[in-house]
Amino acid sequence: MRMTFISNNWADAHQQTRLKALTQSGFQIDCLAVFRNYYPVKTDIIPKWIGKVDHASYAKRPKTYFSLLFQLIKNLKSNQIAYVYGFDLALVVVLFKVFSLRNVFIIYEVPDIREVFFSSGIWGKSIRFFEKLAIPRINLLVATSPEFITEYFIKFRKIKLQDFRIIENKVHYDQLPGKFERQTSIVSPKIKIGYFGVLRCRASLDCLILLASENQFEIILQGIFMAATSDFEKRIQDLENIQYLGSYHVPDDLSKIYNNVDIVWAAYPFSNNNVGNHLWARTNRYYESLFFHKPLILQKNSADAKQAKMLENVAIEIDLANIKQAASRLSSVLTPNFLLTARRSLLKVPEHHYLITTEYKNLVMCLQQNKLSPEGSGIM
After folding, report:
1. Model confidence at 43, in pLDDT bands (50, 70, 90)?
2. Hey, is 222 helix, strand or coil?
3. What are the residues facing 186 on neighbouring strands?
4. Using CA atoms, how far apart are residues 206 and 136, in angstroms rounded to an integer?
């Protein structure tokens, strides 16, 4: 099956993981991609560049949209698949399909639902208007969290979906490097807390700085700071018990960074809002922590926290609505005895909770069963 993979962030580790898995599943893939200043990316695939954008700068993107449209007109034929990230790019693909009359099968993946979709301003209202028009015209919606479907699209937005699949952010075992380890022993007298990935949560960083000052914990930060948290890189330079180790490669460095800590900070960026991505998203750190048998620190009432409760004794819940209380709770609860109990529980967690199993086979079967034209030419 021929597929055009449209990335709104070529350096995003999640999208690279998905692309590699789709390639291994037998799809013949051409790539169109947007460049952003993000993680360094390791891949042998060279995409056709359709633009360079900054995070959340939607007003500056028309050139990218016209570039994408040109590539679609030139290369995307009837009975082919378009797998797209980013609602703005998905909207361009939908418009192309409608006006070109080409029978394209559109797959739109939702790894996160950005705050702009909940905004009460004119920009938020405009996006929701176009979302209401576009989503029903998308053939298959792929979501990384079941709550994106049930809570957002169905309950909150009341949008009709043609079809959907859930492919969670679980570990792709076949993409891990040949040599990796899972160590569970405490490596220092102080408990090491690791916060990895996109370091975008100010509340989390403030709480971790408080914990570092108490001298019973060592904080390990690794990943990249976003614009909203860039000041923290300077703030932590001279602080004791806190290290920033820079960016890393996924999946190559996962074993090293997870084995360097005793517990993982997996709380999603905090928000006081009653609805939103912070309540429904499932983080990479959640699944990676389970895989490497590391206990977790999770935000109360998040999707990850609710799931962790079912596994019993693998996580500590905190509420970042009050940073001092959250730090105080961790100071009292996060002990060597807790770590020992949690590790025993983690060893009993069935692998299907954190490893990809049949998700891609199911996706291929779904696409094989969906014919793209009345004549039955299909997508094969």
Report:
1. confident
2. strand
3. none
4. 41
For 198, phi then psi, to 5°, come to -85, 110
Q: Report the SS3 class of residue 115.
A: helix
CB 259 within 8 A of CB 309: no
For residue 235, pLDDT over 70 is answered with yes
Tokens, residue 340: 């020992």
Backbone angles phi, psi at 48, to 5 degrees: -90, 120
- The answer for residues whose C-beta is within 8 angstroms of residue 103's C-beta and 6 or more apart is 78, 79, 372, 373
Check residue 56 and give its pLDDT: 55
pLDDT reported for residue 373: 39
Q: Minimum mean pLDDT among 178-182, 214-218, 292-296: which range?
A: 178-182
Residues in Cβ contact with 342 at an 8 Å cutoff, skipping those fewer than 6 apart: 263, 295, 313, 314, 315
Long-range contacts of 19-25 (CB under 8 A, 24+ apart): 19/43, 19/45, 20/172, 20/175, 21/172, 21/175, 21/356, 21/360, 22/83, 22/360, 24/174, 24/360, 25/360, 25/361, 25/363, 25/364
- Cα 249 to Cα 43, 197, 263, 291, 338, distances in angstroms: 11, 10, 20, 17, 30
| pTM to 2 decimal places | 0.91
Residue 268 CA to residue 308 CA, distance in Å, equals 14
Q: What is the pLDDT of residue 42?
A: 77
Non-local (6+) Cβ contacts of 210 within 8 A are 323, 324, 327
Residue 137 tokens, joined: 């015209």
What backbone torsions phi and psi does residue 186 show, to the nearest 5 degrees?
-70, 130
Match 């380890």 to its residue by tokens: 181
| Phi, then psi, of 355 in degrees rounded to 5 | -115, 140
The residue to which tokens 């819940």 are assigned: 317
